[in-house]
């Protein structure tokens, strides 16, 4: 089962993903894409860590997500990735177009074939006003395209608002 | 019945809330959280007032919402609060963390137990790009958490887009 | 059939609109509202053009949309307008309130009565944080009101997220 969970900021999407991962009764590998570069980010990361069961394994992978999935996915295990938009943002901040394309392709090409269960969490960022900032527009474009590609390959897609889930697929 | 109505800017959420309040055939107390600090805001407030039936009672309460609800809620009456995001914004602009926490707690702790019917209107603000501005990020976080808490305690949650309602709960 | 397709940036709304237009097996007139004023816009326009069947007719109309629809709508044909938010943005940038009101009214008054099938595509822009910029706020207001008016007059309204459609109406 490949599942994509989308939602706005503070929509409860991470909590839903964690509940669903826990409910599988399988081993859970949590892949965190966040990089702690300031106090606010440290706080956000710590808050999320405290919410997770202590026996889950955690892997921090801000950039090479496709490789991390290929190396770690296996039958009888759930991988929860939280979240894709931070990973995308990390990639775009490298300002290296060919690196960006390689890593994006790496994820999109392995996703469907990975063994075991996968739950991907990502932020909806495209339903507000289009920003002045060119990098922000680029980020919105890339996030939207990524969501479309992954949604097309996912068995289940859920949109979370105020902690409540709407099933977009199937 | 406790109901939360969410939607983007100019989504028709206030109109839907007013229709639902009117359809109950009960007395309606309208609690406005807006503060008129400039011409644009005056205009927005006046436009909303003209849309409401003249026999509804109106109470302006930009800050002490929990207290206003506790003092005014009663069986056989509907209270319509429009809107929570402005109240949250008013609280955050006070820049007094303990005042903020007290007032937030006051609302969250009384909500479920209030007598009579309650319709809360609030803006979805977290589905666009995350802003540069730290206060705006804080506001998005607080709005998202508030929506999650209230949605969990509500009997009915509705999301409005282009004047059209989607039932998120039950 | 009058249809409104809403969705965030890069949500797949244009592709869905094109699929639905193609599926009618009727002649398709594509009305583009984009004005190519810079390289980024040229690139976005070219990308959209390459996605469309070459036998579709294309009309570029950044401002006089109501007139273009009245002159071209006919039985047995589909008109696809992509997108309303760009048209609205073009109108607002003219900074001529009476021109703006005339053109908006022209669209809203003819829409329901136009012969043939119509598919309108528009961006959801009101579910992020309210921007500081007064013109941006005005744009959000106008887009929201326009969507409400057109949704009320449409037979079908669809919201697209990550390429997946949710039926808002009927």
Automatic annotation (TrEMBL), chains A, B, C:
EC number: 2.7.1.156, 2.7.7.62
UniProt KW ATP-binding keyword: yes
Example of a GO biological process term: cobalamin biosynthetic process
Record function comment: Catalyzes ATP-dependent phosphorylation of adenosylcobinamide and addition of GMP to adenosylcobinamide phosphate.
Pathway involvement of the protein, from the record: Cofactor biosynthesis; adenosylcobalamin biosynthesis; adenosylcobalamin from cob(II)yrinate a,c-diamide: step 6/7; Cofactor biosynthesis; adenosylcobalamin biosynthesis; adenosylcobalamin from cob(II)yrinate a,c-diamide: step 5/7
Active site (record annotation): 48
Catalytic activity: adenosylcob(III)inamide phosphate + GTP + H(+) = adenosylcob(III)inamide-GDP + diphosphate; adenosylcob(III)inamide + ATP = adenosylcob(III)inamide phosphate + ADP + H(+); adenosylcob(III)inamide + GTP = adenosylcob(III)inamide phosphate + GDP + H(+)
Superkingdom of the source species: Bacteria
Pfam families given in the database record: CobU
Xref: InterPro entries: CobU/CobP, P-loop_NTPase
UniProt KW keywords: ATP-binding, Cobalamin biosynthesis, GTP-binding, Kinase, Nucleotide-binding, Nucleotidyltransferase, Transferase
Entry GO MF terms: adenosylcobinamide kinase activity; ATP binding; cobinamide phosphate guanylyltransferase activity; GTP binding
Enzyme type, top EC level: transferase
Residues reported in the UniProt entry to bind GTP: 7-14, 32-34, 60, 82
Gene: cobU
PANTHER family for this protein: BIFUNCTIONAL ADENOSYLCOBALAMIN BIOSYNTHESIS PROTEIN COBU (PTHR34848:SF1), PTHR34848
Family per similarity comment: Belongs to the CobU/CobP family.
Protein's name in the database: Bifunctional adenosylcobalamin biosynthesis protein
SUPFAM superfamilies in alphabetical order: P-loop containing nucleoside triphosphate hydrolases
